[in-house]
Amino acid sequence: MRNLTSLLLLVTFLITGCSESPAVIELSAEPEGIPVDTISAVDSIGILMGDSCYTLGAIADYTMLPDASPVILDRIKGTVSVFDSSGVFQRSFGGFGGGPGEFQHPFKFTRLSSGIVVVAEMMGKVNAFNENGEFLAGWSMEGLGGLPLDCFAFNDSTFVCYYFGMKLGDEGINVTYSLNRYHAITGEIVTEYFAWSGNPTPSTDFTPAYLVATSDGIGTMYLSRIQSDNWMVEVYGEEAEALDTLLLFHERERISAPDTVMVPGAFQLQYAYSDESGTSEMAFVNMPDQQPFISALGVDRDGNIWCRRGGLPGDLWDVVSRSGEQLREIVVALPDSAYYIDMQVNPYGVLAFDMLTEDFHKLYILGD
């Protein structure tokens, strides 16, 4: 039996390190009459040199507040920085360390409608702050450590986290994926939406665990399973049972990806494990075998659902109503050449950045 001894804290959305480029995906024709809109950057935050408030070490995560103010979690600086709607620096909090309200490996964060800010770190540590950046509580997620793949607000007191971790089972340590709703202050698991566990070996099929999700922030969550036969979004409330299932894009094909090509838009995870002799080996979890797929979800100010098509460069979104009607397509245009556009859509606005920029990280504020 092989036991997992450690996780390499490496997560990317991309296919870096692969010898082949991703396959070109030719989509079937969309229904006539679907409008195509382009959104572009109206402002940006981030400079190469100068004022340290505006030089970004590495953007780990970001969001927008109700007054259209961007907030950035910086993995290198170890801070949460708040800017006003014009991109002017306001304040920051956090910092590296092991004390209350300090970070060691900040990775994801979110802001609840009550103003509570939750920062989730590698290995499962969580810190909660009030809207002024004052420390409220700290706790750790369940298991033996892991990585928060995504976090988003559910309502004024709870948030949802998609988590890759380790748990001790009857036959040793297992790799796990979970999608749970947590109380931001106490760390209590309020709802278990999804749980998957597998042996840490290269032969394990990890793809049933892949999903993307988001929330409107006021009690409704949307989830899409990447390894699905259909373009499908499930709708959840406070309970673990789905309230509705939206079957989308009926005429659109799904195309198989060659075995040698990793699918961009999905998390690429690498971990270390050892066999009974103590020999350490490295392994990647296997990727979905079909593309394109829904690789991200968002909810805009009108309550419409944004579905990103997986693949490079990540700049094409389909917007559907809450009933599943396709409303329009959105193309994202950044002023600089982008290898892969990471983007967040929430009711307060749209933010984006190129995670593999060649010079420095810059967060773009996108307009209508």
Low-pLDDT ranges: 1-29
Radius of gyration: 20 Å
The figure for the number of domains is 1
Distance between the termini: 54 Å
Instruction: Provide the CATH superfamily.
Output: TolB, C-terminal domain
SSE pattern, N- to C-terminal: EEEEEEEEEEEEEEEEEEEEEEEEEEEEEE
Neighbour order of strands in the largest sheet: 24-25-26-27-3-30-29-28
Helical segment tally? 0
Give the beta-strand count: 30
Q: Name the average pLDDT.
A: 84
Structural class: mainly beta
Give the C-level CATH assignment.
Mainly Beta
The CATH architecture = 6 Propeller
The multimeric state of the shown protein is: single chain
What helical percentage do the residues reach? Answer: under 10%
Proportion in β-strands: over 45%
Specify the biggest β-sheet: 8 strands, mixed
Could you explain the architecture of this structure?
- The N and C termini lie far apart (54 Å).
- The protein is 0% helix and 49% strand.
- The strands form seven sheets. It has an eight-stranded mixed beta sheet with strand order 24-25-26-27-3-30-29-28, with no helix packed on it.
- The chain is an all-beta fold and 368 residues long.
- The relative contact order is 0.18.
- It has a single domain, classed as Neuraminidase, CATH 2.120.10.
- It has no helices and 30 strands.
- Residues 1-29 have low confidence and may be disordered.
- It has strands spanning 3-6, 11-12, 36-45, 59-64, 70-74, 79-83, 89-94, 106-111, 117-121, 125-129, 135-140, 146-153, 158-169, 172-183, 189-198, 211-215, 221-225, 231-236, 244-248, 255-256, 268-274, 280-284, 290-291, 294-299, 305-309, 316-320, 326-333, 341-346, 349-354, 363-366.
